[in-house]
Amino acid sequence: MALDMDKLNAFVGRFVGDLGAAVHAGMVVIGERLGLYKALAVQPMTSAELSAKTKTDERYVREWLASQAAGGYVTYDAETKNFSLTEEQAFALANEDSPAYLPGAFELALGSLAAVPRITEAFRSGAGMGWHEHDESVFHGCERFFRPGYAANLMSSWIPALQDVQQKLEAGGRVADVGCGKGASTILMAKAFPNSHFFGFDYHDQSIAGARDAAKRQGVADRVTFEVAKAKEYPGNDYDLVAVFDSLHDMGDPVGAAAHVLQSLRKDGAWMIVEPFANDELKDNLNPVGRVYYSFSTLLCTPCSRSQEVALCLGAQSGEARVREVVASAGFSRFRRATETPFNIVYEARL
What we know:
The chain is of the alpha/beta class.
């Protein structure tokens, strides 16, 4: 059969971009861990100046800077031999409070890829892999990947989009954050609503330990309680709000978890479900965002669900219709899409 060389060259060009992006992930993590981006954000520097500033080896730094400049993550001035960050590059790479902070996503990607040998075998056996079994950088990277989006949207648009929830939390309410991981979402809410009490639950003991430490560091330990508990077993009732951030699709039995949410809510309480943005049909998810989520879902979400009871395996691109089905099966009578961003959909469920 005859090859269309233009199509082949275009595909190979895509491969070159993907290969560069794959190894570039490691470069971003190195730059973040060593403080290279933060130093460059202060002023332009040569490789020697940057290595001296960050107490690193100049030859390694020189090679790293070249990779960053080639990838468009660092700006190079050929006349002065200086490297620098533009305002936009610094906003995304050096400012940890930025809603567009990127290094955490690369840390999550590298940690996820450590599981490739085991996931390869899982393709043959059908076995699962629990969240707790992944490389530690998965837990740290996951928090840093999702936190910027939560910081940018949770208080400004997501909670206001829920019926009467903001007023209850301002007055003083009870909130359960189920699948809270290292507590980023819980702590953000606690800072915004000092009259309310927040309870964060996750089955992963190491994440809960990290969440407790974070609550102390950020001064909210007096109104935040973190406990090790599964989604179908967390304690308490009469919650004004139960929140599940980017984790319903990871659960083996999301219907069972939803039923537990139902019985833990006050009669006028709300369940906020934050899920990765996805359309209902595969053909409508074949885009760069879908590619990211389907890939993470193959390495993390689907194996996690497969490792648990029921093993429903919703996947990170389940879509609104599938989430609605889960919620209705648990006994909720009201369900709606409250709001959305390019990366998340926020659903509201009520009794």
